[in-house]
């Protein structure tokens, strides 16, 4: 793979990393707030889901605006929104309901940075390697979330949970400064005159219908939804799971739970990039289906491994993370190159909306199953919770094989 990110890509990769520093703050402090605020597992999961709810509320507007004006402007607003959400959690949150509000604001801020950041690249890069730029950008999601776990864990241990949110707020603000100072405006604005955004612009149902009628594009979108249920549920609960494993085994882990979660997330970065390269060679659909089935196996195996040696649990967690992320860039790049040009912005918006809709469902499903089957102090509850989020990838593979998506010609060499 001979590819070096050049031009605007390094700046967007740095901005992406900074903007995502607030992603895992709540996952790191979940058990702390659960004890301090006397939350159920379902309530804890719903606070994590509120982040994705805010994302879903904002992403249709954010992506609609990128079809009208320079995505840089949308990105700047998103960076400030995420900063305000994190500061609100650190300064003002005191119970379940206030946490829902500020986590939703944080999620809305990410909606203003993640897909608009991708649009910044696609508007400025006109070479044949666009999908590789996209693969790097998507893979750096793992870099940002990995540092989010690490930094949040260090701050929590040193200063307490409120400082986690307060100090991490510097991350999206730094992303705001990077894009403001280092990404030039488009030479020709897309829209001239006053911008009038109507409801059908925010929710372009007619365009979404066209996207969904394209069997290839809709396959990537549905796959991304199933992928996101598993991905975001795992990331929201992984620190609590490691804490449970340490308690059951009675054997101290090599690193703290938050540090482990951060380090393991980094394995997803090369997995996502290399996964896209493999998919180009063997076909995106075939690779996606193989990865989803493998990820499901690793997820359930990880839950069953509680009580085993820490090195075995970590090995399974690394494998699970790598397989979760191995189709991430492939799903997004496949959608971008398969969507028709006149509805590409709407397709990216629907892709992100449904993907983070999976993120909204995943953590809540996980917490609900923990409550339904016992508690987070029971091994069988963790097994059922992991099974409840990995099964969607299996359902997707079964459905898509029957619907003939696998037989479509894969998009290659892009």
TrEMBL record:
<feature type="transmembrane region" description="Helical">
    <location>
        <begin position="74"/>
        <end position="94"/>
    </location>
</feature>
<feature type="transmembrane region" description="Helical">
    <location>
        <begin position="134"/>
        <end position="155"/>
    </location>
</feature>
<keyword id="KW-0472">Membrane</keyword>
<dbReference type="InterPro" id="IPR011701">
    <property type="entry name" value="MFS"/>
</dbReference>
<feature type="transmembrane region" description="Helical">
    <location>
        <begin position="287"/>
        <end position="305"/>
    </location>
</feature>
<keyword id="KW-1003">Cell membrane</keyword>
<feature type="transmembrane region" description="Helical">
    <location>
        <begin position="100"/>
        <end position="122"/>
    </location>
</feature>
<keyword id="KW-0812">Transmembrane</keyword>
<feature type="transmembrane region" description="Helical">
    <location>
        <begin position="43"/>
        <end position="62"/>
    </location>
</feature>
<dbReference type="InterPro" id="IPR050189">
    <property type="entry name" value="MFS_Efflux_Transporters"/>
</dbReference>
<feature type="transmembrane region" description="Helical">
    <location>
        <begin position="161"/>
        <end position="183"/>
    </location>
</feature>
<dbReference type="Pfam" id="PF07690">
    <property type="entry name" value="MFS_1"/>
</dbReference>
<dbReference type="InterPro" id="IPR020846">
    <property type="entry name" value="MFS_dom"/>
</dbReference>
<feature type="transmembrane region" description="Helical">
    <location>
        <begin position="349"/>
        <end position="370"/>
    </location>
</feature>
<keyword id="KW-1133">Transmembrane helix</keyword>
<feature type="transmembrane region" description="Helical">
    <location>
        <begin position="311"/>
        <end position="337"/>
    </location>
</feature>
<feature type="transmembrane region" description="Helical">
    <location>
        <begin position="382"/>
        <end position="399"/>
    </location>
</feature>
<dbReference type="GO" id="GO:0022857">
    <property type="term" value="F:transmembrane transporter activity"/>
</dbReference>
<feature type="transmembrane region" description="Helical">
    <location>
        <begin position="255"/>
        <end position="275"/>
    </location>
</feature>
<dbReference type="GO" id="GO:0005886">
    <property type="term" value="C:plasma membrane"/>
</dbReference>
<dbReference type="InterPro" id="IPR036259">
    <property type="entry name" value="MFS_trans_sf"/>
</dbReference>
<protein>
    <submittedName>
        <fullName>MFS transporter</fullName>
    </submittedName>
</protein>
<feature type="domain" description="Major facilitator superfamily (MFS) profile">
    <location>
        <begin position="1"/>
        <end position="403"/>
    </location>
</feature>
């Amino acid at each position: 793979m001979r590819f070096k990110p050049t031009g605007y890509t390094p700046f967007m990769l740095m901005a992406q990393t900074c903007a995502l520093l607030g992603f895992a703050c709540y996952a790191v402090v979940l058990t702390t707030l659960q004890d301090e605020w006397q939350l159920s597992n379902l309530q804890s999961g719903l606070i994590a889901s509120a982040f994705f709810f805010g994302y879903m509320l904002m992403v249709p507007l954010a992506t609609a605006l990128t079809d009208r004006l320079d995505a840089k402007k949308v990105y700047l607003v998103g960076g400030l929104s995420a900063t305000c959400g994190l500061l609100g959690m650190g300064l003002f949150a005191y119970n379940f309901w206030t946490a829902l509000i500020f986590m939703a604001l944080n999620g809305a801020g990410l909606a203003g940075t993640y897909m608009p950041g991708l649009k910044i690249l696609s508007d400025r890069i006109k070479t044949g390697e666009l999908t590789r730029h996209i693969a790097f950008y998507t893979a750096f999601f793992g870099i940002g979330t990995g540092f989010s776990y690490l930094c949040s864990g260090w701050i929590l241990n040193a200063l307490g949970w409120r400082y986690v949110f307060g100090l991490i707020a510097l991350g999206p603000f730094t992303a705001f400064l990077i894009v403001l100072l280092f990404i030039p405006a488009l030479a020709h604005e897309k829209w001239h005159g006053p911008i009038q955004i109507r409801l059908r612009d925010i929710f372009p149902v007619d365009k979404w219908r066209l996207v969904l009628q394209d069997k290839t594009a809709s396959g990537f979108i549905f796959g991304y939804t199933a992928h996101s249920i598993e991905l975001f549920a795992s990331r929201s609960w992984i620190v609590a799971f490691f804490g449970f494993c340490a308690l059951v085994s009675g054997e101290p882990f090599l690193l703290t739970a938050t540090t482990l979660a951060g380090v393991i997330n980094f394995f997803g970065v090369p997995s996502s990039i290399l996964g896209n390269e493999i998919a180009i060679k063997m076909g995106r659909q075939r690779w996606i289906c193989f990865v989803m089935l493998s990820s499901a196996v690793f997820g359930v195996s990880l839950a069953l491994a509680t009580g085993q040696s820490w090195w075995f649990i970590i090995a399974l967690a690394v494998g699970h993370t790598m397989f979760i992320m191995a189709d991430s860039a492939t799903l997004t790049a496949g959608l971008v190159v398969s969507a028709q040009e006149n509805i590409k912005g709407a397709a990216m918006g629907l892709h992100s909306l449904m993907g983070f809709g999976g993120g909204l469902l995943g953590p809540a499903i996980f917490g609900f199953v923990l409550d339904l089957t016992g508690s987070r102090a029971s091994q069988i509850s963790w097994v059922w919770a992991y099974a409840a989020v990995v099964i969607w990838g299996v359902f997707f593979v079964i459905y898509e094989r029957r619907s003939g998506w696998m037989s479509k010609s894969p998009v290659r060499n892009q």
